Amino acid sequence: MFAHLPPYAGDPILSLMESYQRDARADKVNLGIGVYADGAGVIPVLPSVRAVEVEDHFNSAPCTYLPMEGHTGYRQAVAQLLFGPELPDQNHLAIIQTLGGSGALKVGADLIARFFPQPQIWVPDPTWDNHIGIFEGAGFGVQRYPYYDADKKGLAFDALLSKLESLEAGSVVLLHPCCHNPTGIDPDRGQWTQIIEVLERRALLPFFDLAYQGFAASLEQDVWPVRECVRRGIAFFLSNSFSKIFSLYGERVGALSVFCPQDGQANNVLGQLKLTVRRNYSSPPLHGALIVARVLSDAHLRQQWEGEVNQMRERVHGMRERLHAGLAKVLPEYNFGFLLRQNGMFGYTGLSAAQVERLREQHGVYAVSSGRICVAGLNPGNVDKVCLAMAEVIRG
Ligand code: LMR
């Protein structure tokens, strides 16, 4: 019956987790998956989240089905966080709760594929591997636009812009508003303005994927490109995730927003999103959404959580500086200044797949074969070892 099913080669990021867990070396270091660990190497339960979880009424609430579109208070609080003063009214915004950011990408992809036949999406080169998997899986043709300039170790801005200029009206373009995964390289404000002008002029459909709001500069500044599209009346899709910024990976808490600048469309878009959810998984889970809704809507908890996001961002930034300084010491002939121009959880080291393999095999340091490391997995106890290991594989 199943003889024709080929074996699965495994996911380039998630399989690394499994190998890391099987590794018996006591000094192994996990810089593979994008998960934030604190200075002691522990994935934190944020104090704001813990405060909600011990509330009596929280624990005694019945665990009923949520509606297809998710928890109302959650959707309102998330919309407020994402759009702030640019929050569109409900006639111009369709927002649903989803199973993390991946669930939002999948529901958005399914919706587009149903109503825009033979869809094409343009993704940055490189991008998160699963962008390609999710959109191909939903029937899209996936094409790449230039993003990373390996020689400059920076943004290939001119090539990016001229590729966007050449796309057909209605093409879907995937964009990372901040903390680009895997490179950590983001356009600056002036470059974003030029990108958005092209999106507008060429009538392209942006699909923003926001998994790291608050991890580049601040919760407000990191969503500037999204809010600028609202100000200009550009329709878009936006997936967002609370896995990292609430440290709620396993709860699968996210949202999908569709901004509908033309009157009279948001309601139908919302209806079709609900239908897409019903056909996929019926309705989203409750627990994580209740936590996020409570934290975002309570002034005290909200302030506390914002402080926690700032702390996580600053710790990662501090480790990025430690990594840079450590590498400069062990490899003085190389310039690692590019690491300091990258944002968020990831460092794009320029290591080859063969060097990454040696890091893992010989030193127990796990990274993605593209050369991406999760800087949020570094801490004062492992950063020197990582620098020495990187120096050894770079020198060959
Ligand atoms: C990552 O890029 O490591 C994270 O987004 C986790 C994942 O699902 O790949």
TrEMBL record:
Its EC number is 2.6.1.-. Residues 27-387 form the Aminotransferase class I/classII large domain. Keywords: Aminotransferase, Pyridoxal phosphate, Transferase. Its cofactor is pyridoxal 5'-phosphate. The keyword Transferase applies. InterPro entries: Aminotransferase_I/II_large (IPR004839), Asp_trans (IPR000796), NHTrfase_class1_PyrdxlP-BS (IPR004838), PyrdxlP-dep_Trfase (IPR015424), PyrdxlP-dep_Trfase_major (IPR015421), PyrdxlP-dep_Trfase_small (IPR015422). It comes from the Bacteria. One of its GO terms (molecular function) is transaminase activity. Homodimer. Belongs to the class-I pyridoxal-phosphate-dependent aminotransferase family. This is Aminotransferase.
